[in-house]
Amino acid sequence: MLPQRRPRKKGRVEIIPMIDVMLFLLVFFIMITLQMITDKGLKLDLPTSSETKVLPHPHFVLNIVKDGGVVVKGKKMSLDQLQNFLVGDGDAKHTQVTIAADKMVPFKDFVHVMDACQKAGVTSIGIAAKPA
């Protein structure tokens, strides 16, 4: 009498864990890529400083042009529009802003922009300068 063979089980490929891993990798690469996108700025003649430090990547770069106007993400804004823009962004206390002013901009314009940021609730403000 011949022994009976058991039917062979076919191997199964579980696809659900593979989908989970692929979605995790996709989200990971999207988050990394978003942090690598730089904010476009204007060509400004920044002042130099011997004590410059590299700042963390800010949420917004506020460019102050020679006529005193403020340009954010390619859009020119008044001080009231800037304040409303920063308030409308969400949690202003965690918003990081870097102010880049041309060296020919009067200091009063710089102070007005800084004042608008503080009125909006922004507490993390950096100042752009060229290393000496």
TrEMBL record:
The chain crosses the membrane at residues 21-38. Its main location: membrane. The keyword Membrane applies. Coiled coil: none annotated. It comes from the Bacteria. One of its GO terms (molecular function) is transmembrane transporter activity. Pfam families: ExbD. It is found in: Cell membrane. It is a single-pass membrane protein; Single-pass type II membrane protein. GO terms for biological process: protein transport. One of its GO terms (cellular component) is plasma membrane. InterPro entries: ExbD. Keywords: Cell membrane, Membrane, Protein transport, Transmembrane, Transmembrane helix, Transport. Belongs to the ExbD/TolR family. This is Biopolymer transporter ExbD.
